[in-house]
Structure prediction request, 437 residues.
Amino acid sequence: MKVLVIGSGGREHALAWKLVQSPRVQRVLVAPGNSGTASGHPAIENVTVAASGVGGTSTPADYVACAVLHGIGLTVVGPEAPLADGVVDAFEAAGLRIFGPTQAAAQLESSKAFSKAFMDRHGIPTASHATFTGVAEAHAHLDVVGAPIVVKADGLAAGKGVVVAMTLTEAHAAVDAMLGSDGVHSAVNDGDVARVVIESFFPREEATFIVMSDGQHVCALATSQDHKRLLDGDLGPNTGGMGAYSPAPVVTPEVHARALREVILPTIRGMQAEGRVFRGFLYAGLMIQPDGGIKVLEFNTRLGDPETQPILMRLKSDLFEALLAATDGRLDQVELQWDRRTALGVVMAAHGYPLEVRKGDVIHALPAETDDAVVFHAGAAQIAGEVVTSGGRVLCVTALADSPRLAQARAYEVLAGISFDGMQFRKDIGYRAVKPR
Prediction:
């Protein structure tokens, strides 16, 4: 069977890399893909999709046409934007097999205001919060609650629409940016109304909990932790993610059971009850308290990036077979097998990321894949026979080893041989798992 992966990042490279390992997969096409999916495996290739949408973007209909043209048997959606645009609805209307949530179900990610209200309706634990469309009202609220505080753009913002403000000055500036004409907000479903969600902050350790859902049953993936801040020690601005590792030691068996019981299952049932059956990857960003209590930081309706890279490095089962079962409503028959070792990925980012990203820098000395290390491409492209930077997060150097410390050492060993002008990377990925607990 031919499989189509929609997207161009490191997550999509990792999906293609894993899917092509299935004996039932003839070919994996990635739309539009990147330099890694263009040259990493003879059975993986990039395909061009028509871009008939506003601003030269591909529409759901464009992706449907691509799938029909190439005889695709299964499509997997990587990024959030096509889900929010309704690509799954379009495929289902055309009678094509696709794994991902519908536009209505994807609102769990595409609107933070919807997500927070949904959690309130269904008793899912999350931080206290308030939503604003007016700048003056948001500023007045900040003056009452004080800092530290968390300010979030309501719509999709590519992982960068969250400001953890440690001072009121930072918080007010975030509100101005998100509700102003140059903000990071995007249009939401009931009109082009910009919103911010302001929620309480409290110290916590974060972990990523991702499941596959067929609309009724769920199958948990391996746990992981990522690093959102740009600089060592969790300093600097928020990014889409500077690295991740799996498993996450903070997710004990007790926390795992609690996450399923208090968050995941109530979400799947609540979405079903509201007529928004959730079929796809459900990502819960969890805030874990010292006593084991949990609160939901955010929901995503797709795999995380860079969490996907270490998670799929550890997956021993056939991902393609699991996805087929999910699209058939048979996830209760699936039990995924995991490598007991730790996988850790370090993101190499471009000059200027996450603000003014420079493109076109040549990437030198990319190593060949080995049994214990893979360099997944993200913001990288092939131009005139060279691999060059084409986005903010360029590569994710991912390694597998017997412990977090050894996986960390192996990833940085591989990274040390790669270079490009202006490259940025954190030197402490995995520090929470490596340090004595």
